[in-house]
Write a structure and sequence with these properties.
- By secondary structure, the protein is of the alpha/beta class.
- Helix content is about 40%, strand content about 20%.
- Strands 1, 2, 3, 4, 5 and 11 form a 6-stranded mixed β-sheet that branches. A 5-stranded mixed β-sheet has the order 8-7-9-6-10, sandwiched between helices. It has a two-stranded parallel ribbon with strand order 12-13.
- Helix 10 crosses helix 11.
- The radius of gyration is 20 Å and the shape is globular.
- It starts with a strand and ends with a strand.
Length: about 350
C-alpha cells in the first residue's frame, strides 16, 4: 500500500501538530473534513484506472469550501459511488475557507487540490513556482450576491454606504465585489465597504445579523436561501463575465514527476462523478443532499443549473481573465507570467 510522501492521517486525532497540523485543524473547525473513498486495494485492470498492479494511494486533498459550493459536488459523488475505490484511491478531502487557504494547505503537504483559480495564479507569482494547473473543475462563475428577502436594496446602485461580506483577501469574491461596484460608479473603501468574513455560511450570518448588507454566496446555499424565502439574489457574477474557471484542479510539478498516474486516476474519478451529475441528476442529487445536509430538491436544482460547468478541460480564456483580475487587484503582474509553464496539458484538454 502506497502512502503519500508527505504523510497521511486517518483522523484528526492522529495529526502531529505543527504548521500543517494547525492549518488542517483550523480548516476543520471552519468547514470540516470527510474521509472519502476509503477501502483496501481492489481488483481490476491494469490500465491506470485502478485495480491490478496499482498501489493504493492514501492522502489528503485540499478543497475550497468542500460542503459550501456546488463546484465541490464531484468529491462527494465520486466517494459515494465508489469511483475512488475503483481507482485505488483513499482520499481525505480537507475543507478550507477560501482559495488562498487551500493553496496554503497544499504547500503544507497535500499533494493536490481544488482551490479557486485566481489564488492559485497569485501563489505562483508570489513564489510557489512548483504549482501546476492540471484540469478545470467548474468552468463558469458561480458566485452570487444575496440580500435578505426584506432588504430595501433592489439594485447595485443601492449599495452606496453599504457593506458587502465576501470571502478572503485576494479571493474571487473580493475581486467581483470590487469590480462590479466600481462599474456601477461606487468606490470600494469609500462609499461601499468590502468585508472579508469567510465562506458562504459566514457571509450569510453577517448579513442576517446586520454586520453586512449583502453576502456573497454560491449554490447550493444560495438556492436554499432563495427557495426558503430568506434571501433574494441581488446580482450574479455570470452576468458580468463570460469565461471564468471558478475553481480548478492543481498539484505540483514534483508530484506530477513522482506520481502522475495517481493524478490521472483521481481526475478520471472526478470526471465520472461529473458525468453522473449530467446523466443521472436524481442519483447525484440524492448523494449530494445527504453529504451536505440539504433538501434533495434543492440539491437537484443546484446540480441541474451547474451541470454544464463541470468540465475537466482548461479554459485558457478564463485563466487569462483570472490573470487580468489579479492584475486589477494588484495581486500579480499579468505581464510577468508564463502560462505555458504553469498550465499542464498532460491531464486534460486545453481550450482557447
Amino acid at each position: 500500500m502506497r502512502t503519500s510522501s508527505k504523510g497521511f492521517a486517518m483522523n484528526v486525532t492522529n495529526y502531529q501538530m505543527g504548521r500543517r497540523g494547525f492549518l488542517v485543524m483550523a480548516s476543520r473547525a471552519a468547514g470540516g473534513a470527510a474521509m472519502l473513498g476509503l477501502a483496501g486495494a481492489c481488483s481490476g485492470g491494469s490500465d491506470g484506472s485502478g485495480g491490478g498492479g496499482k498501489d493504493v494511494y492514501q492522502g489528503e486533498v485540499a478543497v475550497a469550501h468542500l460542503k459550501a459550493i456546488v463546484g465541490a459536488a464531484p468529491f462527494h459523488i465520486a466517494a459515494a459511488l465508489g469511483y475512488y475505490k475503483e481507482a485505488n484511491l483513499e482520499l481525505e478531502p480537507v475543507s478550507f475557507p477560501g482559495g488562498t487557504e487551500t493553496i496554503r494547505g497544499m504547500a503544507t503537504g497535500m499533494d493536490f487540490g481544488m482551490p479557486a483559480t485566481l489564488p492559485g495564479l497569485i501563489a505562483v507569482q508570489k513564489g510557489q513556482k512548483d504549482l501546476r494547473l492540471i484540469a478545470g473543475a467548474f468552468n463558469k462563475p458561480a458566485v452570487v450576491f444575496l440580500v435578505p428577502a426584506d432588504s430595501k436594496i433592489r439594485e447595485i446602485s443601492d449599495l452606496a454606504n453599504k457593506k458587502i461580506a465576501v470571502s478572503q483577501p485576494g479571493s474571487i469574491t473580493t475581486y467581483f465585489a470590487n469590480r462590479i461596484t466600481k462599474e456601477q460608479g461606487l468606490e470600494p473603501g469609500k462609499n461601499v465597504q468590502i468585508l472579508n468574513v469567510g465562506g458562504p455560511p459566514d457571509a450569510w450570518t453577517a448579513a442576517k445579523q446586520g454586520v453586512a448588507d449583502v453576502a456573497w454566496s454560491n449554490p447550493p446555499l444560495s438556492d436554499k436561501l432563495v427557495a426558503d424565502g430568506e434571501a433574494r439574489i441581488l446580482f450574479e457574477t455570470s452576468d458580468f463575465v463570460d469565461h471564468w474557471p471558478d475553481v480548478s484542479y492543481w498539484t505540483t510539478q514534483s508530484f506530477i514527476d513522482e506520481s502522475g498516474d495517481v493524478l490521472k486516476r483521481w481526475l478520471k474519478a472526478q470526471e465520472q462523478a461529473m458525468e453522473t451529475i449530467k446523466s443521472d441528476v436524481d442519483k447525484a442529487a440524492e448523494i449530494y443532499a445527504k453529504a451536505v445536509e440539504l433538501d434533495q430538491e434543492v440539491a437537484k436544482t443546484s446540480l441541474q443549473n451547474a451541470a454544464e460547468a463541470f468540465d475537466l478541460s482548461i479554459d485558457m480564456a478564463g485563466v487569462e481573465e483570472n490573470l487580468k483580475a489579479g492584475g486589477e487587484m494588484g495581486q500579480l503582474d499579468p505581464n510577468d507570467f508564463d502560462l505555458d509553464k504553469i498550465v499542464s496539458a498532460d491531464f486534460a484538454s486545453v481550450k482557447g
